[in-house]
Specification:
The chain has 325 residues and is of the alpha+beta class. It folds into two domains: 2-105 and 277-324, Probable inorganic polyphosphate/atp-NAD kinase, domain 1 (Rossmann fold, 3-Layer(aba) Sandwich), CATH 3.40.50.10330; 106-276, Tumour Suppressor Smad4. The chain is 32% helix and 29% strand. The protein contains ten helices and 13 strands. Strands 3, 4, 5, 6, 7, 8, 9, 10, 11, 12 and 13 form an eleven-stranded antiparallel β-sheet that branches. It has a two-stranded parallel ribbon with strand order 1-2. The mean pLDDT is 87.
């Protein structure tokens, strides 16, 4: 906070989450009270909950890595805890202030037919095996706290015993596709998990989701998909369907678990779509240009310049109101 204050940010307050939904509540409060930005120290699930409260507003999101996987922070090339940088949090703040605010797309998942709460994601919305893994991790938070990323590997191996995939009908922008499906992932970013790069052509502000549907059944096919994904050979796999999509509907013969940004949220059937340029993101100076449509013009105005401009605009508005009075 001192670093922000030293750079002429007025830090209004600090809130700590204690349960699911707290981040959304705090974000909505920030929007109502007209805050310029919300800095979130947490993992991908906490960030997704914050996005639920900020989407469609003028309040910007700044991401500080403080969770287990920190995949979105890694995608932005921010230093993460446990890495080589000795002071990752302070360095992340510095890189964000040297960056620039930018409007980015947000993914949205809701129950089929729209009868239920909707959730938003910055990274991915997933159906099937990976959601099953995230559900298992969420049911044993003590293990996650104790083992960190190791909890996901254990849950993955244990889930192989029981998860077989199921018949599914997927509608991609109206096109009907029938498959025996292990997993479906709608990507808004290029990274998937900590070590995989599933959607290398995904862009954060192009108005599209990169959809990957992994076909098959059983543990053997699931392991083969994981190996090909690790080796970046999944793109050539005929058992992987790849689409660019704006609206997706997923119905399955047996209900499959669903997640947003690694947080288990329920079961199929669901609808997934993209909301173009719905979130103001404070993009750090270190972010990869390939993540944006016009990466060559990524920083026309730094976050620092943006803050100064906001302050000047506020002062001018006060002067105008005083003159009218």
């Amino acid at each position: 906070m001192k670093y922000l204050a030293d750079h002429e940010w007025d830090v209004i307050g600090v809130e700590q989450t204690h349960g699911r939904g707290d981040a959304t509540t705090y974000a909505r409060k920030a929007v109502v009270e007209g805050y310029d930005a919300v800095f979130v120290l947490g993992g991908d699930g906490t960030i997704a909950q914050t996005v639920d409260g900020l989407v469609g507003s003028d309040t910007a999101l700044a991401v500080l890595p403080g969770g287990t996987g920190n995949v979105f922070a890694r995608q932005l090339n921010l230093p993460v805890p446990g890495g080589l940088h000795p002071r990752p949090l302070l360095e992340s703040v510095r890189l964000i202030l040297e960056g620039s605010p930018r409007l980015v797309d947000v993914g949205r998942i809701m129950p089929y037919g729209g009868n239920g709460p909707e959730r938003h994601f910055l990274c991915w919305g997933g159906v099937g095996f990976d959601a099953q893994v995230n559900r298992a991790v969420s049911e044993d938070r003590a293990r996650k706290k104790r083992l960190g990323l190791g909890a996901f590997w254990i849950a993955g191996f244990l889930s192989l015993r029981d998860f077989a995939g199921t018949s599914a009908v997927v509608r991609v922008d109206g096109r009907r596709i029938s498959r025996r499906m292990i997993m479906l992932v709608a990507n808004n970013i290029q990274l998937y998990g900590v070590i995989f790069r599933m959607a290398s052509s995904a862009v954060l502000d192009d108005g599209w989701l990169d959809l990957y549907c992994f076909q098959g059944t059983g543990a053997g096919r699931t392991l083969l998909h994981a190996l090909r994904l690790f080796l970046n050979r999944h793109i050539q796999d005929p058992q992987v369907d790849i689409y660019r999509a704006r609206h997706v509907e997923v119905t399955t013969y047996r209900p499959l678990p669903v997640h947003v940004d690694g947080e288990y949220i329920g079961y199929t059937p669901v609808m997934i779509d993209v909301i173009p340029r719905a979130l103001k993101l404070m993009v750090p100076r270190c972010a990869p240009p390939s993540l944006f449509v016009d990466g060559s013009d990524l920083f026309p105005e730094t976050t620092w310049e943006w803050v100064v401009r906001l302050a000047k605009d506020a002062q001018e508005a006060i002067k105008e109101r005083s003159g009218l009075a």
